[in-house]
Carbohydrate ABC transporter membrane protein 1, CUT1 family (Pisciglobus halotolerans), 288 residues
Amino acid sequence: MKKSQDRKYYWLFLLPCLIALTAVIFLPFFYGIYTSFTDSDGFNMTFIGIENYIKLAKDKSFLSSIWFTVRFALVSVIGVNVIGLGLGLLVTRRRNKLSTFFRTSFFVPNLIGGIILGFIWQFIFIQVFEGLAKLTGLSFFEGWLASETTGFWALVIVFLWQMSGYIMIIYISFLNNIPYELIEAARIDGANSWQTFWKVKFRLLAPAFTISLFLTLANAFKVYDLNLALTNGGPFGSTEMVAMNIYNTAFKQYHQGYAQAKGIIYLLLIAAVSLTQMYFSRKREVDL
């Protein structure tokens, strides 16, 4: 009797969450899949089958935005994790008030909203860099948001600045849980700082890599606000990422059925990359 009552209360408390998830996530998701097979403009729709998906294969702007986003994600994921791990090692070497100050300082950029962050760095790349160009006479500082190459690296720099402190916190939590006895034993055996890191710490950080790689991949693939604030996809759409391409298709060109098809393909791409990363990361944890 008691178990049946507990089960009844269990579903009673769970029901509001299920209703909310269904209304906010599941229904829009399945409706979006249906919409991708229509020519919806936001007001009217007609079922057209897989025509939108066939059209995608010839859409150069969409394919270009995917390639740009994949390159951005690859560079950003490597950069964020290298910097985040480096910062984590730096602030855990000695535990004092100064290390606490640096942890807070490195994490603060993650608290700034993407649009605001983008406009701050837009000022730096345009106004500050132009001033440096005039002061030093170096062309390196000129037109950072005016070309595809420099625009790409501008987006990478801002993403690294924003995300590295967040990933640092994850590495710190795992570094602090490494038994000190293992570090001490490695030193007694004659291991130097690099050997201690590579042979002991790095191998015990495998679960941290799994989490950090997943988070950075997910965030890198869905960047929109920084893209909007820094380059707005320019010049001539050369720095347009997939999220912006889908948004422009849906709300500027009013081809919402076509935009949904882009979204479904992009979802499958992100899922494939994320699941592959999780598989190999988990396998590495077991091997170690």
